[in-house]
Amino acid sequence: MDLTLSLAAVQTAMLAGVRFAAFFAVAPPFAHRGIPGAVKAMLSVGLALAVLPRLDLAATASTGQFVGALVLEATVGAALGFLVSLLFAAVQAAGNLIDLFGGFQLAQAFDPQNMTSGAQFARLYNMTCLVLLFVSGAYQVLVAGLARSFDAVPVGAGLDLTKMASAVTTGLTDMFLAALQIGGPLLVVLFLTDAGLGLLTRVSPALNAFAMGFPLKILMTVTFAGFAYLALPGVVNNLAQHAVEAMMKVAS
Asked: Residue ranges per domain, the chain?
């Protein structure tokens, strides 16, 4: 059986696969080191073949042009993946805030799987976010958004740097805002705990209330952490929607 493939179709599939691969190398949950590189490569090839019928064939005249197109597609995929990772960094940032205000920051450790440093709540929130992305099917929304990016940014075309800069600025603002919204209720409780200890010290200086402040804040953090933890499923769902919207704005 003879199988004939056009050079333009092969090149277009390779360029689309490079965009997928660069995206998977940066964006969560695919960037987790627990996912083997071979799985990411096969997934990139499979998705590239799936979207190939929708793409305009892009043939290059020379090897240099093809290599340049590969670099351009890798840049586009990495840029879109960075926008996604920027938004989902809000979950870990919220955990870092809780660790900082709750007194857990002293137990900070390096996570080789996520290539990040954080204490207990930062790692807990990060792992929970990854699990929710897979369990809820939000990762499919991200992949579908990347596939739709080929309609706005065809293979061989680059991103608008002005839109990319605007999206990064907006993403940073949204990240800090989302981090405060996730950890805000617990941060308010910890702030009121500090304020109460300060008032108690003013009333009875000999009591030295701040000596028991460290274990008391840990107790309050562990007690009320569940209330902030319950909000994570809705937060992850909203972040996935915002990530797709950010990719579409840059690629439009």
From this structure: 79-251
Burial of 85 (0-12, 13-18, 19+ CB in 10 A): middle
One-letter amino acid for residue 35 of the chain: I
pLDDT one-digit tens code per residue, 77-135: 888 888 888 888 888 888 888 887 777 776 666 666 666 666 678 888 888 888 888 88
pLDDT tens-digit series, residues 159-214: 777 777 888 888 788 888 888 878 777 778 777 777 777 777 777 776 666 677 77
Spatial distance between the Cα atoms of 99 and 123, rounded to a whole number of angstroms: 10
Q: Check: CB of residue 75 under 8 Å from CB of residue 158.
A: yes
The three-state DSSP-derived secondary structure of the chain is CCCCCCHHHHHHHHHHHHHHHHHHHHCCCCCCCCCCHHHHHHHHHHHHHHHHHHCCCCCCCCHHHHHHHHHHHHHHHHHHHHHHHHHHHHHHHHHHHHHHHHCCHHHCEEECCCCEEECHHHHHHHHHHHHHHHHCCHHHHHHHHHHHHHHHCCCCCCCCHHHHHHHHHHHHHHHHHHHHHHHHHHHHHHHHHHHHHHHHHHHCHHHCHHHHHHHHHHHHHHHHHHHHHCCHHHHHHHHHHHHHHHHHHHHC
Cβ–Cβ < 8 Å for 22, 77: yes
Which residue in 19, 31, 37, 154 sits closest to 78, CA to CA?
Answer: 19
* Cα angle: 35, vertex 41, 46; to 5 degrees: 115
pTM of the model: 0.80
